[in-house]
Amino acid sequence: MRSIYAEKIVPKMLAVKALSGIWPGVVWSPLSHASVADLPEPSLPGPRWIKVKNRQCGICATDISFLFARVDPAVAPAALPAHERMYLGHEAVGEVIEVGAGVTRVKPGDRVIMNTSTLPVNCLSREIEPACRFCARGDYALCENRGTTHGAAGVGGGWGDGFTAHESEVDLVPSDLSDDMATLVEPASVALHAVLRRPPAPGDKVLVVGAGIIGLLTAQAARAVCPDCHITVMAKHPYQVEMARRLGANETIGPGDGYESAARITGAKHYTSMMNKGMLMGGFDVIYDLVGSSATIEDSLRWARAEGAVVLVAIDFRRVRADLSPVWYQQVDLIGSLTHGVDDWQGRRQSTFDWVFELMRAGKLGAEGLITHRFPFEQYRQAVATATSKASSGAIKVVFDYR
């Protein structure tokens, strides 16, 4: 089984971090904490386990962060022992080729996508009973046993031939969804879960910071949840601006004119003073931050109106430093949103994946034009280079195509 994985080997991570700016190929060298490996074909570790052969998998910014060691070993999640090895690739769609004797949810030949296997541990996958309070309600991303090394763990990921998984870690793909749509279900679920953490109301001014794949899907999700809100997308590249407008954004702004544009779009007053980038009185009702850097967190908090909200959908895995005073001074809510789980909407409660399936069928979340590049696994270096050089490649979503 071919697979690409990254390990928490701090000296090698530091080497990659120090050298990748001048030598991107260091990540594929013996100095790297990442490996492209031919692993022994794994056996199923238990009766409720399955083996999946990959058909397609997206390259996600989180994968890139781990691959290039854009991670500070001091950030909180790095302390968890279950994060010692990360098999890269979680936006995977594949075919079940083997099942254990106790499997009831899927059968050989079924098309599946990764769900909770995006994260390394939860009570269901490790068969921990009783389940923690979060797993009991379906919020597996918040599992209180994520630090455990108890029980079996899967081998392989989306960047490679296939993987083994507990049956609870995958979802069936509806027969009417294409492989392209199935590949985008996981990132679309991240986007929808974020929007449902603080849904916009009719007439609200919404800002999406970042126009990568999840930012564009967040704009779609906000429109699907509240058709009558006003959506602005902050985009870095011209092709992202074009796609954001095609997907229904009312306005787009560049990262260099955020304060003036935020004031113009929302009718806020913009105040500046010496040694201060400024403060808005008024601003956006809801901001979804898809970057999570020191700069975007600080700016988003200053661009939100009093009693508005900033939803942190992504995070820089390095330490951030930001002025949090608007949380106090303007009573801005800073809300976290981690992957997906279960969500309440329209008087119903169901998994985020099921909500996404419904919205895709209704044409409110789409894949057209979002997958821009495809590579066979053998061209993994070129695929990663394309995904990491968006200014020159024009990439939105890059996928490995194993078909």
Overview of the structural elements:
The protein is α/β, with parallel strands linked by helices and 403 residues long. The protein has two domains: 2-173 and 370-401, Medium-chain alcohol dehydrogenases, catalytic domain (Quinone Oxidoreductase, Chain A, domain 1, Alpha-Beta Complex), CATH 3.90.180; 190-339, 3-Layer(aba) Sandwich (Rossmann fold), CATH 3.40.50.720. It contains twelve helices and 20 strands. It has helices spanning 10-19, 61-67, 133-136, 179-197, 213-225, 238-246, 258-266, 294-303, 325-329, 352-361, 380-388, 390-393; strands spanning 2-7, 34-38, 49-58, 85-87, 91-99, 111-114, 162-166, 170-172, 205-209, 230-234, 251-253, 269-273, 276-281, 284-289, 304-312, 333-336, 342-345, 348-351, 371-375, 397-401. Strands 3, 5, 6, 7, 8, 19 and 20 form a seven-stranded mixed β-sheet that branches. It has a six-stranded parallel β-sheet with strand order 11-10-9-14-15-16, with helices on both faces. Strands 2-1-4 form a three-stranded antiparallel β-sheet, with no helix packed on it. Helix 4 (179-197) crosses helix 5 (213-225) and helix 4 crosses helix 10. The longest helix has 19 residues, at 179-197. It is globular, with a radius of gyration of 21 Å. The two termini are 16 Å apart. The mean pLDDT is 94.
